Amino acid sequence: MLSYRHSFHAGNFADILKHSVLIAVLEHLIKKDKPFDYIDSHSGAGLFDLDNEHAQKLGEYKEGIAKLQPEQWPELSAYLNAVAACNDDGELRYYPGSPLLAMQYLRAKDNAWLYELHPSDVDMLRNNINSTRYSKRAKVMCADGLKGLLSHLPPASRRGLILIDPSYEIKSDYEQVVEAIAQAYKKFANGIYALWYPVVDRPAINRLERSLLATGIKDIQRFELGLAPDAAGHGMTSSGMIVINPPWGLFEHMQQVLPRLAATLKTSAEAVYRCDVLAGE
């Protein structure tokens, strides 16, 4: 159950998609002076050393974040600046996970609720969070994030972003994320929900999307990025983000970014991306 370690995959194409969407939503939230809450259901360790044996074993970051030169990507400047902020000497040595990226946007009046089940990752997450500016506004919990997030809804701020990104190693994860979102939405219909998914088995993703639409939730957008077309038995060929209550401008932003990312990061002749609306407002 706890065998997955993101340190092997940090900075890959899936992280680029997930975190570029995350940053775009956070940029929207801080435009208003009102506080917000950030809930991360599967936080991981928070920061990853790309020089360690895990990252070097697969080298996925070399075909991911290492390919994006900031001067060539003004449309991703906020995301790339957030990554650069975790690398003091200007060299790409560390890649921040979603909690460390979110903490860069957290203000003194905002709160973060960070869940992680892997014991060693929880310890590293606490250490990494303690080094940030507003660490007292973030609480790290070694618990099931899909169950725990409900206890924070609706937040006192009445504004919030809920990031849900399990590893999907367990097949029941596909059902559990939809159930968690449906329950959370009943308590906090105005929240922004961002659900990450891997495309290893396309039929499983199709079922997830149908199940989500069956809840009756409206205003859902999908953004997907792939290294290659769907191919059974080839591992994760694509990954996606489903965003409920997306902020204004996110769709247009991703329409601009996704074709370029697909062309830059692809490993086959065919660029793969999706940017569409699953459910209207």
Short description:
By secondary structure, this protein is α/β, with parallel strands linked by helices. The protein has nine helices and ten strands.
Attribute tags:
281 residues; Rossmann fold; 8-stranded mixed beta sheet; two-stranded antiparallel sheet; 10 strands; 35% helix
Biggest β-sheet strands, sense, barrel: 8 strands, mixed
Order of helices and strands: HEEHHEHEHEHEHEHEEHE
The CATH homologous superfamily is named: Vaccinia Virus protein VP39
**CATH architecture call:** 3-Layer(aba) Sandwich
CATH top level assignment: Alpha Beta
Model description:
The protein has a single domain, classed as Rossmann fold (3-Layer(aba) Sandwich). Helix content is 35%, strand content 19%. The chain is built from nine helices and ten strands. The strands form two sheets. The protein has an eight-stranded mixed sheet, with helices on both faces. The protein has a two-stranded antiparallel ribbon with strand order 2-3. Helix 5 links the parallel strand 4 and strand 5. Helix 1 runs antiparallel to helix 9 and helix 7 packs parallel to helix 8. The mean pLDDT is 92.
